[in-house]
Amino acid sequence: MKNIITIIGATTLLFASCNKLDQIPKSTVSKEAVFNSEAGLKLYTNSFYTLLPTSNDILKGDNMGDFVARKDVPDFFRAGAFGPAQSTGWTWTSLRNINYFLENNNSSSVSEAVRNNYNGIARLFRALFYFEKVKRFGDVPWINRTLSTNDELLYSGRDPRALVMDSVLNDLNYAIENISAASEATRTRITRTVAQALKSRICLFEGTYRKYHTELNLQSTANRWLQEAADAAQAVINSNLYSLANITDIENGYRNLFISTSVNSETLLCIAYSQELGVFHDANWYYTSATAGDRLSFTRKFINTYLRSDGTPFTDLPDYKTQTFMSETKNRDKRLNQTIRTQGYTRINGTQTVNVPPQFSQTYTGYQPAKWVNPDMGLDGGSRNASNIPIIRYAEVLLNYAEAKAELGTLTDEDWANTIGQLRKRGGITGGLSTKPTQADNYIRQNYFPNISDPVILEVRRERGIELALEGFRFYDIIRWKRGELFTDTWNGMYVPALNTMMDLNEDGVNDVYFYTERPSNMQSGVIYINVAPEVNGQPNNMILSETNKGEIQWMNTIPRVWNDRMYLYPIPLNDLTLNPNLKQNPNW
Amino acid sequence: MDEEGKALKDVSVTINGTAAGTKTNDEGRFTLHSNASQGSITFSYVGYKTEVRTFSGNAQINLVLTADKKALDEVVVVGYGTQRKANLTGAVEQITDEALKNRPLTNLSQGLQGLIPNLNLTPPDGRPSTSATFNVRGVTSIGQGGEALVLIDGVEGNPALINPQDIASITVLKDAASSAIYGARGAFGVILITTKNPQNEKLQINYTSNYSIKKPTYIPEFVTDGYTWASMFNEAFASWNNYASYPQNVNKTLPFSQEYLQELKRRSEDPSLPRVEVDPVTGQYVYYDSHNWFKDLYKSNTQSIDQGITVSGKSNRTSYLLSGHYFNQPGLFRYNSDDYKMYNVRSKGSLDVFPWLTVSNNTDFSKVIYHIPMNVGETGGIWRNIVAEGHPMVPLYNPDGTLTYSAAYTVGDYAYGKNGMDYDKNIFRNTASFNARFFNNALNIKGDFTYQITNNDETRRRVPVPYSRIPGVIEYLGNAYNDMRVIKRSTEYIASNLYGEFEKKFKRHYLKTLLGYNYELSTYKRVGTERNGLIYADAEDLNLALGESMTITGGYEQWNIMGGFFRVNYSYDDRYLLEINGRYDGSSKFPAHERFAFFPSISAGWRLTKEPYWNISRDLISDLKLRASYGSLGNGNISSYVFQEQLSLSKMTRIIEGVQNPSTSAPAVLPAGLTWETATTANFGLDLGLFNNKLLINADYYQRKTINMFTTGPELPAVFGAASPRGNYADLMTKGFELSVSYRDRFLLAEKPFNYNIRAILSDNKSTILKYNNSRKLLSDYYEGQTLGEIWGYVTDGFFVSEEQIRTSANQSLFLSTAAGVWRVGDIKFKDLNNDGVIDYGDNTVNNPGDKVIIGNSSPRYRFGLNLSADWNRLFFSAFIQGVGKRDWYPSRGANTFWGQYNAPYGHPPVSQIGNIWSEDNPNAYFPRYTAYLAWTAGGVLREVQTRYLQNAAYVRLKNIQLGYNLPDQWLRKAGIKGASVYVSGENLYTYSPMFKYTKNNIDPENVSESDQLLGDGNQGDGFNYPMLKSVSFGLSITF
């Protein structure tokens, strides 16, 4: 008996001493504390918002678009520079975060409707996550739970695109059914309407992808997705919660959408910035720095697609190829003058308003973007912009609607007038607003989409390029339209009628640029001198003129860009393929 | 004669206060003639205690000199006790305050560098607040990491904040056997700092004062002539752009054109022209200066003052010691100076309550205040910012006194003087202890209790900087910042020890045992607040921040440990020595079932010279001891709570509904199991005393195997969605040695003894990964078989010499020598080691590294130190030389001090590059064709690590040299002064490094480390950090 007491006593003592070394963290929370209240669910779902595009994804997102020249050739298009060893994007941390939420959001302390609302948000983000993965890699494994370190799914193969996208559609539909809010004033939260708009984007992508990428053998399902896209866009339109903004301000209305610190009726979802909170993006720096950034400039081939203000194609003019910058930028769709620097473009330097021409230290073609750039030059060096960046604009919903309907062949004149017509009207275009086009535009067709004969589809694509330029859509638009060859187009710039001539691009009486093959001895202050000799010091020159002594600027022909149909999908990164050979590489990589 | 009755020859005999002196003869006899009828005679002989005898008249003096076994009888502080040096069996090294004397130290780690072999201190920069990590014997763990445990008077403390003058001795316990008693925290060595105790019966007051003049060891010498700079900039820029475009701006702040360049030339030829004008078209200032921004940045020198006073005494039953210390080093920066101040107060006292019981108390307060100026234009250190925007053509001020745009980004912000951080750190500590002695002192029971609170506060203010580009128009830089941040951190720490020691000697057997218990609890709390909207730029309190952006963050961590420990020492005849240590340790940082672990160790020594059959003369080999030890220790240096599933909260950057919301996300995947990392050390040592212990040699060789290091798990496919849970997966082996050799002797110089002492130390260590989860041996991570620090790179094959050679050489298109991918004569050519016609990195694995090979190693190797000291006739002199024998450095991306404009075109070219840049006339130059971005941009051909530019950053440095004079007693006695000395001391006065061949005096070999870490992430470029300082100081020490 005595021994037993001793043992019990000793054990108790031992336990007591063990317990003394128990420490509970206090600056973090337990799972229960999070999932037992709506506040906790909201706290957790906030972490999903990092999946939304960043400012870089949007305002720099077109740096691989076919319509921009830049300071260097992206490795993706450089022969031999990109392969499985360089590929990235096979990261799955966000998915685990979402699945962990869905697995644990089952506390009876929270009502089912509330839980479903947050599950809806989680599943919307899961759809977005998978949309990005499918866009990039095609087939991917569908995973809807958190994996353990010995889970068989870790080493299984990829699931077919059709299965994954059906699951994405399920997630989208669940989100639309269960998210309670229809709108939110600051346009920074996911709502049911935002979910519908995203659905239209995703379904349009999938529908057109299946339609044009016949190698998938999914053409027969394309229309179902296009119809889903049209219906989702229709739902947003019918909600009457949103409309095009600044429609009467033809001169500045379009541009103001991108430099405004307040939200407008057109924004469904945006990234918010704030001077007060000290949260900024770096649009001005990116688009005006002579050293940092990609120094994006539009190609002339794309600038040519902007219509004349009467609604007729600029490229119908017989002399359109030899028009100077000064003349070609007049009497056009006003969005041109709000997208790039042209005559009358001014900025604020300190307190002075100054005329600012395209600067050849920042542009290679002459068509220098102005779209995201705040006029205040004080914001140029560093992250200083506080304007909102739209993630989804109502204009995109209209374009999604028009494109889905056009692809389905069901776009009516009324549809045209309510979508493209509205957008063109805001651009100050006066003609062709109420009836859909009946004649295919030769320029667009020959230069961009030779396989499309439908005039409506051609016009919708023109419109989408112009309206959404520099908003991060272009690369994947080209991919889904299966027109990768466009990425190898010559990067061409403005027409230079003669060498050794001063040019005043914005006609403010101050000379801006001077092209030469032999450097002049006397140089004028403020003028940028550019050598366009075919060779410099025995090496090919990066900037030349198409006809040597005159013609269009051609930039960076020295590094050829290549396209191969395998590039419609990114390769699985080498490292990941090595870890799990069952993934199998995408074709021809 | 000596203790054994043998006659001693050459004993020096002098009559005090006179020049009379002689030496003993072969029979040990001497005769001295003197006019004095009485006085005292000093007998001194190396290796023996000096004796003083009084005489009167013609008396005969017989004297037995006892061997001075100071070196061997020296008592060494060890864990929870002391030990005779002669009986040490572990690897233990001790130095005394002598080594720190008369040196103007901003903190202790600077003073200890190079003094103890394999106590490796590598300061990352020269900031007064910088304290090097205390590392013992090399790389500890690549998992949890770990540093040596530093104990001050037996309790963990911060060596950076201790008063250097309070230190009596510093002991380093290097092997497992000697540090095992500290269990889980002693896995990587223990440093025991012991503070001074009262020495004298009488009241003694010691006052010391030191005044130092300090300046950087090296200030980089850059091209500052505006025109030269600008033409180099123009060339580097154009070359990168294939000579097809020319710069329009110098980075962000200065417009540039060819016409401007021509104008700079004209003005450089005609210096009478004004250096600032206003452009009539733009209305902006145009600058034509040749400005040296470093002259604005640094004062020509700064001074530090060090004052200390110690009052101590003893009586029958009490003893006391009070010390105060004040150190003030005004900053080196000319504007917004980085002032550093340290205050220390210590009070120690003890009372013999009973003959068998002593109670003591030790109170210590330390405070450090440090101000750091900062820039708001760009984050990061000023050094990087000067390179980015401090263009020589632009002055600091415009003619109207406003700052220039370049200045606002750089030194102008300092001149404006509002932006910066203030650190305020203080430590209060009190240790109360008792010592009870029983059975004729055979049994000692000791106990202590310590309470320590550390406050580490930080205040940061950022406001926009006004500048002007157009006369009369003020603009502001850093609009995003107008805020104040206050962080309060406090750590409360209690520690208590209770231990008993029993010591018994019977006949030739000696036994000492120690048994004890230790408990420690540490609680860390943090509050951080930040708010913007300061109502004016000088606001100093959060109340004046009224903005919308508010952040309040908390923080908490608590851990506790408990352990029982023992030590048994046994020796037979002082000949065979044995020591066994062990500790049973428990830590809250491990899950319940892994919480406790037992760490044993054993060590033994054999004193050969004590063997009866040892018959080599003691005059030759005086003492020889062999030592060996073996033991394993757990590394408890792991962050708290890693085994618990927790969701952490953070504030989002993204604004949702107008605010930056908090968010939380899925917790990290927990490790399946978590246990102690274990470090097992085997140590072999040799202690040798020669020539009556005049020459002492200590040598140690060790192997330390760290197993079960807590590192990354086996690589999992990415679909897992989280980092592979860390676990006890990796093993590491570190091998090294220590050697210290000292020689002391004396001779008579002008009939006065000249004592001298030489001590040289050398140590090394090398670590190899034995096990690591990197099955493919990717070079981007650790891998099995890797020697830590190794540098992989390409082999440079000179420069291209002809177009023909460019065409026929291996394809280098993975790299860039111009933006357009064009290669020219004078560009870097790599060797195609695998002859596949392409220069590349293969799979970036050990087995397929393409053309890469191991070209060097960045770990410092063969650290050495050399101490010389001498005294003669009241003069004393010492010199201390310290260095690193081998270390490779590849200048990183951004390391402008090395790369100049090869980095970014707007960088500053070092003058040392001039004349060493490739051109057709100079094809054998060190640097290639002058081209910007090569060391900066991804793929840039100089950014790729390669043999040609690998620098040998070994160095040797005259760390300290001093000369002093002890004032004659007779001068002082009248003033009631017991002793006084004056000295002059120089710190870091001379340095040599093989890399100076190319870097000249641009960079100190200890500054080649990463960029400033207080203001940036350390990745802005090697060398962009606070300079090392050299100093000359004058000091005095008076004892009353």
Describe this structure in words.
Chain A: Residues 292-589 form the RagB/SusD domain. Chain A: Keywords: Cell outer membrane, Membrane, Signal. Chain A: Residues 95-204 form the SusD-like N-terminal domain. The complex is a heterodimer of chains A (589) and B (1040). The longest helix of chain A has 26 residues, at 112-137. Chain A has helices at residues 2-20, 31-35, 38-46, 55-59, 93-104, 112-137, 161-178, 192-212, 219-239, 253-256, 283-288, 300-303, 325-328, 334-339, 394-408, 413-418, 420-426, 442-447, 455-467, 474-480, 574-579, and strands spanning 68-69, 267-271, 297-298, 346-349, 352-355, 389-393, 491-496, 502-503, 513-516, 528-531, 535-536, 539-540, 543-545, 551-555. In chain A, helix 8 (192-212) packs parallel to helix 15 (394-408). In chain A, the strands form six sheets. Chain A has a three-stranded antiparallel sheet, with no helix packed on it. Chain A contains 21 helices and 14 strands. Chain B is mainly beta and 1040 residues long. In chain B, 8% of the residues lie in helices and 44% in strands. Chain B has 13 helices and 50 strands. Chain B has a 22-stranded antiparallel beta barrel. In chain B, strands 7-12-13-10-11 form a five-stranded mixed sheet. In chain B, helix 4 (226-240) runs antiparallel to helix 5. The radius of gyration of chain B is 33 Å and the shape is globular. The relative contact order of chain B is 0.12. The chains are: A mainly alpha (589), B mainly beta (1040). Chains A and B meet through helix 1, helix 2, helix 3, helix 5 and strand 10 of A and helix 5, strand 26, strand 30 and strand 35 of B.
Itemize the secondary structure elements and their pairings.
The complex is a heterodimer of chains A (589) and B (1040).
Chain A: H1 2-20, H2 31-35, H3 38-46, H4 55-59, E1 68-69, H5 93-104, H6 112-137, H7 161-178, H8 192-212, H9 219-239, H10 253-256, E2 267-271, H11 283-288, E3 297-298, H12 300-303, H13 325-328, H14 334-339, E4 346-349, E5 352-355, E6 389-393, H15 394-408, H16 413-418, H17 420-426, H18 442-447, H19 455-467, H20 474-480, E7 491-496, E8 502-503, E9 513-516, E10 528-531, E11 535-536, E12 539-540, E13 543-545, E14 551-555, H21 574-579
Parallel strand pairs in A: 9-10
Antiparallel strand pairs in A: 1-3, 2-6, 4-5, 7-14, 8-9, 11-12, 13-14
Chain B: E1 12-15, E2 21-23, E3 38-44, E4 51-56, H1 70-73, E5 75-78, E6 81-84, E7 92-96, H2 108-112, E8 119-120, E9 135-136, E10 149-152, E11 155-156, E12 167-173, H3 176-179, E13 190-195, E14 204-216, H4 226-240, E15 249-250, E16 254-255, H5 258-269, E17 276-278, E18 285-287, H6 293-297, E19 302-314, E20 318-329, E21 340-354, E22 357-373, H7 382-389, H8 405-409, H9 411-416, E23 420-438, E24 443-462, E25 465-470, E26 473-477, E27 483-506, E28 509-532, E29 550-553, E30 556-572, E31 576-587, E32 596-607, E33 621-635, E34 649-651, E35 662-664, E36 677-690, E37 695-711, E38 727-749, E39 752-771, E40 790-793, E41 796-799, H10 803-808, E42 828-830, E43 853-857, E44 861-872, E45 875-886, E46 888-889, H11 896-899, E47 951-952, E48 955-966, H12 969-973, E49 979-992, H13 996-999, E50 1029-1039
Parallel strand pairs in B: 10-13
Antiparallel strand pairs in B: 1-2, 1-3, 3-4, 5-6, 7-12, 8-9, 10-11, 12-13, 14-19, 14-50, 15-16, 17-18, 19-20, 20-21, 21-22, 22-23, 23-24, 24-27, 25-26, 27-28, 28-29, 28-30, 30-31, 31-32, 32-33, 33-36, 34-35, 36-37, 37-38, 38-39, 39-44, 40-43, 41-42, 44-45, 45-48, 46-47, 48-49, 49-50
